[in-house]
Amino acid sequence: MKKITSLHLDVLKEIGNIGAAHAATSLSGLLGKKVDMRVPKVEMVDFTDMMELAGGPETVVVGIYLRIEGDIEGSMFFILPVEQATSLIRRLINDEQFEFSQKPEFELGLSAMQEMGNILSGSYLSALSDFTGLKIYPTVPGLSVDMFGAIISIGLIELSQIGDHVIVINTTIYEDGCCGREEVRGHFFLLPDPNSFEPLFKVLGVT
Q1: How far is CA 49 from CA 55, 167, 168, 178, in A?
Q2: How many CB atoms lie within 10 A of CB 15?
């Protein structure tokens, strides 16, 4: 981890912005209105800081998670605060009554959130694959509304064997709405398996 510099993180940020541009195009078609996405920052943080970014381990969030397979393997999570996820899905399905907190949740809203997860994670991983030349295959994303600590725990089991840091890709979604430019902030957490750190950072120039 000490060999990873701001330059390497800037490369990951640029890859993220390429993926975000592709995702924004797909989301614009899905929403029927202009959507922009940016990756303002990529950072390496320890587990404690990661929990704080999500508001703490007991904060209830909407989490989209998937496994990564191929030349590198690991877990990837996209985390949104429940309030922001609810607002986004209401606009996506044109249903102001949608609530993640209601049981049972509306199937259409859950399907829309999962489709958004497909678009976001697929766009980022495709950009990462194109840039690095690594073969990267995402599994079908799962969706959970739960405490952040419970959602992220699966990915931490393997990673904790070699260290205590994860890659955080901060993501901002901008949407033009009736009340001006609305903003949704979320986080991608990329947790490579222990054997995948070396091939990933080798192609980024970390030897």
Answers
A1: 10, 11, 10, 35
A2: 23
Is residue 58 helix, strand or coil? coil
Separation CA 20–CA 146 (nearest Å) = 26
Alpha-carbon dihedral 30, 188, 67, 156, rounded to 10 degrees: -150
Q: Which residue has the higher pLDDT, 30 or 177?
A: 30
CATH superfamily, region 6-202: CheC-like (3.40.1550.10)
* Cα angle, residue 167 at apex, residues 162 and 172 outer, rounded to 5°: 165
Structure tokens at 79: 């985390």
Contacts of 55 (CB under 8 A, 6+ apart): 61, 81, 148
| pTM exceeds 0.70 | yes
